[in-house]
């Protein structure tokens, strides 16, 4: 999904320092050679900033200009730090520290705490939510899960902006921040939370930065010790630095100028966490003699995708917009972006799933396709649609690859086989490395053909298949490599969190997609109120939403689809409008227009009979009649209520015993198919069946969530259960392929 994992081939380590520079474009080469003094790299999306950074460090190390142990490269996620370590290793620059701000600070805090404070460092609180809930309870407030998440986020924001509880209400007013509760109440919860931590001798992740800053400020001897160890600093994604992180960086660097920062103000999308592009935009002011290099050659996306991205930013306003980079695609022409309007969200999801299935059939790997949305709650309808279409998917933000149970088991098995060598009967007849790996992993669930559908069984297979592909690439790059060599490679990759690609369509929020890329990207739910989000009130908040859409667009290499639905549910009022950000860009739209005449290309598909340019016309859909509550008669718009055919508050006549039997049957059916339970029927659908107690196929098929497809697969069992008949076992029919 990233530039690092798009290919799992293993490049040969460059033989000489100059060979490290081979293949860099003129601007990237300028970055790599700028090894002294302050350096600021303004790097647009897809312009190879990580490549430029890692080759810069590797060239300095290989040429003897930089000592590996004195270089500290910091970024914002473990994945990004792992990718950087993996690339440096491939370039022959081992020994360089590549860490997140928190990881680097924690190591220093653990080392210096006994000397600076005495005793052991307080225990690190892995998750602060439970303690925040307790703090709220002590303030006589009971928060639901969503409120708890929002309040926790507010506390994190306050701490990274170095705002103490007493100053929080004033800070909210000054920044026009949309607080989830009354600021005075939040300040009270924040203060109580801090007191609870002190009482229990625990610290949170923000405290790691705060305490490290405190020690370095108060103990000049410790600060000089750190500056003596690290003499050259590289900061990636510098537009995301918070005031607290900048303060820590200043203390690390001291009065020296061996600092290289890389960023793009147009990709500032984390202001809610305290991130600000001001440090990037003001770098030249703080360092008048800095070398500034701009990377604008886009190697990721086609001219059509880049054209739309540039057009979107041409309408932007504000300080970040004044420093926008005009990207220039270096790729061959590709298909135009496709714009599609749908009547309702379920139809949008179903059509998106069909298009994805068509792309996979045309040869695009599932792992190179992504569906991106504004908020995580939008994922459920796409999970259901992809499951119904038999398309495997993975949720971004799930468990790390090397921490998955099946990957750990596979590693143990491969180590055992490597130790046993030819004494392991599993390896009989397996002459090459890839064959040996396939033989070992076949005992853990890998087969030559993937299991049908999605779910836990498919997820496990995909993890093992990724290891098989890794072994094939490793052997191709290193002929004669042994199982022992591969195990060593896996250990190094696990330490660096440099995971291979897992095949499955990615479902992710736009925020979670930052730093990733795919061949095909579907941007869905692009309506006013969702993009920009409803609570974006100020001009700057709206501009950040525009930048978020820009990040989504620039994730696509070749295929880009943008869609929206006019209503939430079938039969609902079609009162939604497509996002204002596409005005003047999508064909047929008017509005903001563009500076410099930059506009978007491509066709527009209304999703109900009007075809995109160059595409097969969509199937004409009949308007759906309003769905009314069968108890009170009110028109229903909520998807869950529509499945029940009644308002949530209207009385239920559900047969509880029947619901229990259906629930148990669903679990058995899902286990047999290797799918999540909801892929058989959602709980709302089970409740609707238990309320209606259908006795015929006609009565069953009209229940929302059933339909003809599931009627043919599960109808016989469901009707038998409703009739009180015993079911011998779950149907063994696999997921359909239509």
From TrEMBL:
<dbReference type="InterPro" id="IPR027417">
    <property type="entry name" value="P-loop_NTPase"/>
</dbReference>
<feature type="domain" description="UvrD-like helicase ATP-binding">
    <location>
        <begin position="22"/>
        <end position="302"/>
    </location>
</feature>
<keyword id="KW-0413">Isomerase</keyword>
<dbReference type="GO" id="GO:0003677">
    <property type="term" value="F:DNA binding"/>
</dbReference>
<keyword id="KW-0547">Nucleotide-binding</keyword>
<dbReference type="GO" id="GO:0016887">
    <property type="term" value="F:ATP hydrolysis activity"/>
</dbReference>
<keyword id="KW-0238">DNA-binding</keyword>
<dbReference type="InterPro" id="IPR002121">
    <property type="entry name" value="HRDC_dom"/>
</dbReference>
<feature type="compositionally biased region" description="Gly residues">
    <location>
        <begin position="590"/>
        <end position="606"/>
    </location>
</feature>
<feature type="domain" description="HRDC">
    <location>
        <begin position="652"/>
        <end position="732"/>
    </location>
</feature>
<dbReference type="InterPro" id="IPR014016">
    <property type="entry name" value="UvrD-like_ATP-bd"/>
</dbReference>
<keyword id="KW-0378">Hydrolase</keyword>
<dbReference type="GO" id="GO:0005524">
    <property type="term" value="F:ATP binding"/>
</dbReference>
<keyword id="KW-0347">Helicase</keyword>
<dbReference type="GO" id="GO:0033202">
    <property type="term" value="C:DNA helicase complex"/>
</dbReference>
<dbReference type="GO" id="GO:0000725">
    <property type="term" value="P:recombinational repair"/>
</dbReference>
<dbReference type="Pfam" id="PF00570">
    <property type="entry name" value="HRDC"/>
</dbReference>
<dbReference type="InterPro" id="IPR044876">
    <property type="entry name" value="HRDC_dom_sf"/>
</dbReference>
<keyword id="KW-0234">DNA repair</keyword>
<dbReference type="InterPro" id="IPR010997">
    <property type="entry name" value="HRDC-like_sf"/>
</dbReference>
<dbReference type="GO" id="GO:0005829">
    <property type="term" value="C:cytosol"/>
</dbReference>
<keyword id="KW-0227">DNA damage</keyword>
<dbReference type="GO" id="GO:0043138">
    <property type="term" value="F:3'-5' DNA helicase activity"/>
</dbReference>
<dbReference type="InterPro" id="IPR013986">
    <property type="entry name" value="DExx_box_DNA_helicase_dom_sf"/>
</dbReference>
<feature type="binding site">
    <location>
        <begin position="43"/>
        <end position="50"/>
    </location>
    <ligand>
        <name>ATP</name>
    </ligand>
</feature>
<dbReference type="InterPro" id="IPR000212">
    <property type="entry name" value="DNA_helicase_UvrD/REP"/>
</dbReference>
<dbReference type="Pfam" id="PF13361">
    <property type="entry name" value="UvrD_C"/>
</dbReference>
<dbReference type="Pfam" id="PF00580">
    <property type="entry name" value="UvrD-helicase"/>
</dbReference>
<comment type="similarity">
    <text>Belongs to the helicase family. UvrD subfamily.</text>
</comment>
<dbReference type="InterPro" id="IPR014017">
    <property type="entry name" value="DNA_helicase_UvrD-like_C"/>
</dbReference>
<feature type="domain" description="UvrD-like helicase C-terminal">
    <location>
        <begin position="303"/>
        <end position="558"/>
    </location>
</feature>
<keyword id="KW-0067">ATP-binding</keyword>
<feature type="region of interest" description="Disordered">
    <location>
        <begin position="569"/>
        <end position="619"/>
    </location>
</feature>
<protein>
    <recommendedName>
        <fullName>ATP-dependent DNA helicase UvrD2</fullName>
        <ecNumber>5.6.2.4</ecNumber>
    </recommendedName>
</protein>
């Amino acid at each position: 999904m990233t530039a690092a994992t798009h290919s799992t081939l293993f490049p040969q380590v460059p033989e000489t320092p100059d060979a490290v520079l081979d293949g860099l474009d003129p601007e990237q080469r300028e970055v790599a050679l700028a090894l002294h003094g302050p350096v600021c790299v303004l790097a647009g999306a897809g312009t190879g900033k990580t490549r430029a950074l890692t080759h810069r460090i590797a060239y300095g190390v290989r040429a003897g200009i930089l000592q590996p142990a004195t270089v500290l490269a910091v970024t914002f996620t473990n994945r990004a730090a792992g990718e950087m370590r993996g690339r440096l290793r491939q370039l022959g620059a081992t020994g360089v520290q590549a860490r997140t701000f928190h990881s680097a600070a924690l190591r220093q805090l653990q080392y210096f705490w006994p000397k600076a404070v005495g005793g052991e460092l307080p225990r690190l609180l892995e998750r602060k939510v439970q303690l925040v809930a307790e703090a709220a309870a002590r303030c006589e407030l009971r928060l639901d899960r969503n409120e708890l998440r929002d309040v926790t986020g507010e506390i994190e924001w306050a701490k990274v902006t170095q705002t103490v509880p007493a100053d929080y209400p004033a800070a909210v007013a000054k920044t026009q921040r949309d607080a989830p509760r009354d600021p005075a109440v939040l300040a009270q919860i924040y203060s109580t939370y801090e007191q609870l931590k002190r009482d229990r001798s625990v610290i949170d992740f923000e405290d790691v930065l705060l305490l490290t800053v405190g020690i370095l400020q108060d103990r000049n001897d410790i600060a000089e010790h750190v500056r003596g160890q690290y003499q050259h600093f590289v900061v990636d994604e510098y537009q995301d630095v918070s005031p607290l992180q900048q303060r820590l960086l200043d203390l690390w660097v001291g009065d020296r100028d061996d600092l290289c920062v890389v960023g793009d103000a147009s990709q500032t999308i984390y202001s809610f966490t305290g991130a600000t592009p001001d440090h990037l935009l003001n770098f030249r002011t703080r360092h008048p003699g800095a070398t500034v290099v701009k990377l604008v050659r886009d190697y990721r996306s086609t001219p059509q995708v880049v054209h739309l991205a540039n057009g979107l930013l041409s309408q932007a306003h504000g300080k970040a917009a004044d420093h926008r980079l005009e990207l220039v695609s270096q790729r061959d022409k590709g298909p135009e972006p496709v714009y599609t309007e749908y009547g309702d969200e379920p139809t949008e999801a179903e059509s998106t799933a069909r298009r994805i299935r068509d792309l996979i059939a045309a040869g695009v790997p599932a792992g190179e396709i992504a569906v991106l949305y504004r908020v995580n709650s939008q994922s459920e309808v796409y999970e259901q649609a992809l499951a119904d279409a038999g398309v495997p998917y993975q949720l971004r933000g799930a468990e790390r690859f090397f921490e998955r149970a099946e990957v750990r088991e596979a590693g143990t098995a491969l180590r055992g086989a490597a130790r046993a060598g030819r004494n392991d009967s599993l390896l009989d007849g397996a002459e090459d490395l890839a064959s040996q790996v396939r033989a070992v992993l076949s005992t853990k669930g890998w087969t030559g053909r993937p299991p049908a559908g999605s779910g836990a069984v498919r997820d496990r297979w995909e993890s093992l298949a990724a290891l098989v592909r890794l072994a094939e690439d490793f052997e191709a790059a290193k002929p004669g490599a042994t199982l022992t060599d591969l195990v060593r490679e896996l250990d190094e990759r696990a330490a660096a969190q440099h995971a291979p690609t897992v095949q499955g369509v990615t479902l992710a929020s736009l925020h979670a997609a930052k730093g990733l890329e795919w061949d095909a990207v579907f941007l869905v739910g692009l309506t006013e109120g969702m993009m920009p989000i409803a609570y974006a009130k100020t001009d700057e908040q709206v501009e950040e939403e525009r930048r978020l859409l820009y990040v989504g667009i620039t994730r696509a290499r070749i295929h880009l689809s943008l869609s929206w639905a006019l209503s939430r549910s079938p039969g609902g009022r079609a009162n939604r409008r497509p996002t204002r950000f596409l005005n003047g860009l999508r064909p047929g739209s008017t509005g903001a227009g563009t500076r410099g005449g930059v506009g978007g290309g491509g066709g527009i598909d209304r999703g109900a009979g009007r075809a995109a340019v160059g595409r097969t016309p969509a199937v004409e859909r009949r308007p759906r009649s309003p769905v009314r509550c069968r108890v009170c008669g009110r028109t229903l718009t909520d998807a869950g209520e529509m499945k029940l055919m009644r308002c949530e508050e209207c009385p239920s006549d559900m047969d509880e015993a029947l619901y229990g039997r259906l629930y148990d049957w669903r679990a058995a059916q899902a286990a047999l198919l290797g799918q999540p339970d909801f892929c058989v029927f959602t709980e709302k659908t089970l409740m609707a069946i238990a309320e209606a107690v259908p006795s015929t196929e006609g009565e069953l098929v009209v229940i929302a969530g059933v339909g003809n497809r599931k009627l043919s697969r599960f109808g016989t069992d469901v009707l038998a259960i409703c009739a009180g008949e015993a079911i011998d076992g779950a149907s063994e029919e696999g997921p359909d392929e239509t």
